[in-house]
Write a structure and sequence with these properties.
The protein is α/β, with parallel strands linked by helices. The protein has 14 helices and 18 strands. The structure holds zinc ion (ZN).
């Protein structure tokens, strides 16, 4: 079966492509891209015989399938928050064709059997490619390193103790060296837990006014600085998760200028919201790292624009209402993100902070590169993983309409512009919303 996507605007940052063209998918791969390639006689013969399916996508944008390199699918162990099934549906609805899921499940993804379980479940759902991220240490307890090679063989795409920092610097050094020898990325959740202890929001003017204990920027910056120093020494790559501070952007920019092989991601809430969002004690806006100040948001936006921040990841953290409908200090950290990440990114494009090409670089091509997976491109021969975006689709975020089990979004009621109206994975349509 062939699929012909006709007349859309094809943007592919991996080959500097941005033009109105046709695209043919054959046997699950990108077979051809060009102008008016639906014309040849051969094609019309196939059309007549029903061997080819045509989708008219004039006015729509066709891009490499989006890749979310930081998501929490919660399974195994926390199925009341999300499952691989519900998370996959939410991911596809948000325009993602690949997601990498963090290991802070129960049990933690620290052994081959958990990695294989996630892969098996994801394959059964068959809606998005799921790349399990295994933990750096057993139980993510920061003491004993996991079996990196075994986990890689089982299908792990990266290592991270996300949710917690690797406090032991020697363990971090060994992890970086060993992961690098296996050509695997280490993703660092940077938080000095001595400095963040007891805090439930950003430390500053607003936390003082609200009477809540704060988490200072230095809790993040100090560990980023340490990790950069270690990665510089070991000469290995290092990926920094969910950057939220101006100081972090500065540290990463300086490190890159010095040739340190560091990459970084931020999440949409860090370039969209400030700690002012907590004035109503909305527990859905309680995240870790916390929402910061306007100076930090501005720095994150600059970092996205100048390439200091390579990727935008959802940090999708679904929680049950029982986790969130409690006193602010007791509420869990995290917000859902799979279904709002793209559109919040598109707001940056509308505000001329970054270009559409830059956004796609950060939501597809770059995360694929960092994870070392063969995605994020529409090159001939690549897997036909494609997202179709309608830039003019106006919609309003409705918490109850989210596919994710987690309804914990602070963007409920926000008027949005732009939507993923279709995802195609391996040449098969997985999500469709408003395409005739
Ligand atoms: Zn984290």
């Amino acid at each position: 079966m062939m699929l012909l996507l006709r007349g859309g605007r094809i943007i592919d940052p991996s080959q500097n492509l941005d033009a109105q063209m046709d695209l043919i998918i054959e046997n699950g791969k990108i077979a051809k891209i060009g102008k008016n390639i639906h014309k040849p006689d051969n094609t019309s013969r196939k059309l007549a015989s029903g061997e080819i399916n045509i989708l008219d996508l004039k006015g729509k944008v066709i891009v490499p399938g989006l890749v979310d390199m930081h998501t929490h699918l919660r399974e195994p162990g926390f199925e009341y928050r999300e499952t691989i099934q519900t998370g996959s549906v939410a991911a596809a609805a948000g325009g993602f064709t690949s997601v990498a899921c963090m290991p802070n499940t129960n049990p933690v993804n620290d052994t081959r059997s958990v990695t294989e379980y996630i892969k098996r479940k994801a394959a059964a759902c068959n809606l998005v490619n799921v790349y399990p991220i295994a933990s750096i240490s057993m139980g993510s307890e920061g003491a004993v390193m996991t079996e990196f090679r075994d986990l890689k063989d089982a299908g792990a795409a990266a290592f991270s103790d996300d949710g917690k920092p690797v406090t032991d610097s020697a363990l971090m050094r060994r992890a970086l060296e060993y992961a690098s020898s296996l050509d695997m990325p280490i993703i660092s959740h940077c938080e000095d837990t001595y400095l963040s202890a007891g805090g439930s929001m950003n430390e500053g003017f607003v936390s003082t006014e609200l009477g809540l204990q704060g988490i200072p920027n230095i809790a993040e910056d100090a560990i980023i600085a340490r990790d950069i120093i270690i990665a510089d020494y070991t000469g290995t790559t290092l990926h920094i998760a969910h950057v939220s501070t101006a100081g972090a952007v500065r540290l990463i920019r300086d490190a890159k200028e010095r040739g340190v092989k560091v990459t970084a991601e931020t999440a949409p809430h860090y370039f969209t919201l400030t700690d002012e969002a907590l004035r109503g004690f909305d527990t859905c806006a309680k995240v870790n790292p916390p929402l910061r100040t306007i100076e930090d948001v501005t720095a994150i936006r600059e970092g996205l624009n100048d390439g200091t921040i390579d990727a935008i990841a959802s940090d999708h953290a679904p929680h049950a209402s029982t986790d969130k409908e409690v006193e602010f200090e007791y509420a869990t950290f995290g917000m859902t993100g799979l279904e709002t990440s793209l559109v919040l990114g598109l707001r940056l494009v509308d505000d001329s902070i970054i270009t559409l090409n830059q956004l796609l670089l950060k939501m597809s091509t770059n995360p694929a590169k960092i994870l070392n997976i063969p995605k994020g491109t529409l090159k001939i021969g690549a897997d036909a993983d494609i997202t179709v975006i309608d830039l003019d689709n106006h919609w309003t975020v409705d918490r109850s309409g989210l596919r994710s089990k987690g309804k914990n979004t602070p963007f409920n009621g926000w008027a949005m512009k732009g939507k993923a109206i279709m995802t195609i994975m391996g040449g098969i349509i997985k999500h469709q919303d408003g395409v005739e």
